[in-house]
Amino acid sequence: MSQIHIQNLFPTPLMRVEKFIDATTIETLVKQIKHSPQLKNAKTDLLTHTEAIHPQSNRHYSTISELTAPHVRDFGFLLFGENLQWTIKEMWMNVLSTGGHQSMHSHANSFISGVIYLTDCHASAKTVFHRSMGGREFVFSNTHADAAVTPYNGDRWAASDVERGDMILFPSSILHAVPENQGNERITIAFNALPERLKSWDYEVRFST
Length: 209
Prior knowledge:
Elements (H helix, E strand, L loop, with lengths): L14 E3 L5 H12 L4 E2 L6 E3 L9 H22 L5 E11 L5 E4 L6 E6 L10 E3 L25 E3 L8 E5 L3 E4 L7 E10 L1 E4 L2 E4 L3
Antiparallel strand pairs: 1-9, 2-3, 3-4, 4-11, 5-10, 6-9, 6-11, 7-8, 7-10, 12-13
């Protein structure tokens, strides 16, 4: 009898760390954001951000940064095949009010990005990841009511399992967004990380923060 083998060629990793921070830490961070200056999002007044700062500038962020270190290192191994020294170069908080959304975007000048959930998210406002758009090739699709969506032809994926206290890590280049929030206030911490260096045989590039 013939045997069939399916290989997942060049998959994109996404890591979810359950219960990354505890309730006490979450309450402390939420109190802090309530007293921090807020910057309105360019696309909607219903989404605000704190200033993006280096974690060492804030004792709470510094503690969070230390907790992320082993997870960022392990995720970096999936991307580059080596346990590199990683640094979180910036961290900030997001507050998404009812009716607000976050437009599709990616994070420039970093390799790993993360989101830490300080509140549960309504089903309408899960982080949604999108397949890259564009390119020079002609694009054909088979998208209609009778066509099944598989991991190989899907255009987007929603992080539907995340809960308050969880963290997700993903490649900074991947497009992501948050649809209109039909639930209560949604609060998250976001950050970007860089490795100490990347090497390709006879040359290397070093990064500083």
